[in-house]
Write the structure tokens for this entry.
Amino acid sequence: GAVVSQHPSRVICKSGTSVKIECRSLDFQATTMFWYRQFPKKSLMLMATSNEGSKATYEQGVEKDKFLINHASLTLSTLTVTSAHPEDSSFYICSAGGVGGYTFGSGTRLTVV
Amino acid sequence: AQKVTQAQTEISVVEKEDVTLDCVYETRDTTYYLFWYKQPPSGELVFLIRRNSFDEQNEISGRYSWNFQKSTSSFNFTITASQVVDSAVYFCALRNAGNMLTFGGGTRLMVKP
């Protein structure tokens, strides 16, 4: 079946630094990938839709300059949290797919200290 | 706009009990897809089922069964003879024609031995 690989699974960074999270579709091409954020004991909130070869579409309230998304190939989308702050600490998860279903990455737990 | 409501935030049962997780959705689309996902403590999302809006047949897969009722906009999930390994957060989700997946708030199921 379709597999989405997400790295790193866990990262701790200092305030003010940037962190890049990768999301790869291993055995299929994904023209569209989705990035979600999940706070503890909360649901998944869609942050943005990543489109291969074009700009990402951000949901209302999500700062595009803070959460940079790049989808340069059909198998890779990256989310960069720039100038991270403790309030950016969260669980970030990507997914790819569509009508046939969605496959999710294993998630990245980001802790900003 | 679409919305998914999981009214039960937490459910606690004793092993071998049957348990039903409720899901009610709202959408203006006539074509849509409904999903259930399981999120164990490790964080990854495990796909359980996908149902399109034109297929109201109930489905059974082992101890899992789903009841889709368009008349009440509900897509409930029942676990029969629950086990400790069923303990997780379960999410109901809706995908509309625009390919966007909207999650319910999740139901935390705790199965005690």
